Amino acid sequence: MLGYGYYFDPTYFLVIIGAVLSIWASARVNNTFSKYSRVRSMTGMTGAEAARMILNYNGLGDVQVEHVSGSLTDHYDPRTRVLRLSDSTYASGSVAAIGVAAHECGHAVQHKEGYVPLKIRGALVPVANFGSMLGLPIVVLGLVFGLSYTFIQIGIWIFAASVLFQIVTLPVEFNASGRALKMLQGYNILTEEETGYCRKVLGAAALTYVAAAASSILQLLRLLLLSGGRRDRD
Predict the structure, then answer these.
(1) Residue segments in the chain with a per-residue pLDDT below the cut of 50
(2) Is residue 194 flagged as an active site residue?
(3) Virtual CA dihedral for 89, 91, 92, 98, nearest 10 degrees?
(4) 229/219 Cα distance (integer angstroms)
(5) Catalytic residue, candidates 104, 113, 193, 194
(6) Spatial contact of 111 and 118, defined as CB atoms under 8 Å apart
(7) pTM of the model
(8) Distance CA 221, CA 225 (A)
(9) Are 198 and 180 in contact (CB under 8 A)?
(10) Would you state the torsion angle of the CA atoms of residues 193, 198, 204, 206, taken in this order, to the nearest 10 degrees?
């Protein structure tokens, strides 16, 4: 049935909730990072220097620390064993920058130790990318053009793979932040007070992953509701 649930779809409310959560979380992390990026660490160490120190302490001297353009584009690449720090982190001596750098080091340590959730997330990457690109379009096409319920279900299962990826990401990110905070204070990179500031920065960053997972779950719920309505009409 052409146009079903597309223009006057009350389940869009779920999408709106997800979007609001994502916008709020993004604003929260940007504001928190901006606040503590103005607080310089007592050691005067930069994000890159802190990362190098943490990696060396954990027997990861072969992991390279590189500069990458952008703001908060920091990441650890397990394929090349390279830790990349953004403009706002690499040469900055703020507690926020050091906290972000330490968080990425946490991922490198996870990789070294074979942290299971990280392995699962890595295995899900290609499936999740496929699901995020094609899952939703398949469901929408099925609903708009009145295709079979089975066709719609296939789209939902494909999209569910990307949702699972978002859920598995949560323990990976929380664990990396926990490791970062312990290492920062344990290696005397930051004082107890400065570590507290980092906890706020990393806590705000974690909210973005929670919001992304919640948004994906709400979208999946919407698709299930729409497909349920279609099944009842078949």
Answers:
(1) 1-7, 232, 234
(2) no
(3) 60
(4) 16
(5) 104
(6) yes
(7) 0.87
(8) 6
(9) yes
(10) -130
